[in-house]
Amino acid sequence: MKNTSGLKHQIYSEPEKKQLESVSQLLKEGETGLDVLMDWMVSVDKESSNLALGKAYQALYANKAPQVENFLQHNFPDGIVPLKSDRGIDYSPLQKLLAQSDFQSADVMTLQKLCELAGTAAVERNWVYFTEIESFPVADLRTLDKLWLMYSEGKFGFSIQRKIWLSVGKDFAKLWSKINWKSGNTWTRYPKEFTWDTSAPEGHLPLSNQLRGVRTIDAIFAHPAWKKD
């Protein structure tokens, strides 16, 4: 195992993949490692998409030591992802669930937030028409996506699913197989057959209502939120 000074250099200077590794290693170094990790976290730009920051926050969120709780409350009282919304929607409950790695509850909450974006009728029916997605604000979809990305080490999120979909030539049948929503001709059964942790295939979460066809997820993939500014 590397010593703490070596790990400190790695988390401050190395590429993101190495930083992710160093988070796990620093957590094994006890109080000294925690001090390095916390110092590094406050040095990171709050608009950052650094996945190591998400991993570090999750680990500290699960740590109930008073000094760690005080650190998070003082420096990251609302989590690490800025919760931008052009509709005034509160994404903090979703951030808390993802910080706890409660991906199943977070998936349910994500659908609730999509319904809130679509309006009162969607909230009442508890699902979204594909025609409602076009009017979703870019800021809100990006917030939802970044929450999933940051708390899954980059494995989950709409943008990840879209990337895989593009890689298979926009073939939804191939996408379902790649992200394990379908095996052969058999749909993955909800909820027991889905994998609610980061051992799942890339793009496995969040779910969309694929059983009603591809229009909903196709509308999400077509949204301008994924265009580079």
TrEMBL record:
Residue span, GUN4-like domain: 85-224
Pfam families attached to this UniProt entry: GUN4 (PF05419), GUN4_N (PF16416)
GO cellular component terms given for this protein: outer membrane-bounded periplasmic space
Domain GUN4 N-terminal ARM-like repeat: 3-77
SUPFAM superfamilies per the UniProt record, alphabetical: ARM repeat (SSF48371), GUN4-like (SSF140869)
Molecular function per GO: tetrapyrrole binding
PANTHER family: TETRAPYRROLE-BINDING PROTEIN, CHLOROPLASTIC (PTHR34800:SF1)
Name of the protein: GUN4 N-terminal ARM-like repeat domain-containing protein
Organism of this sequence: Waterburya agarophytonicola KI4
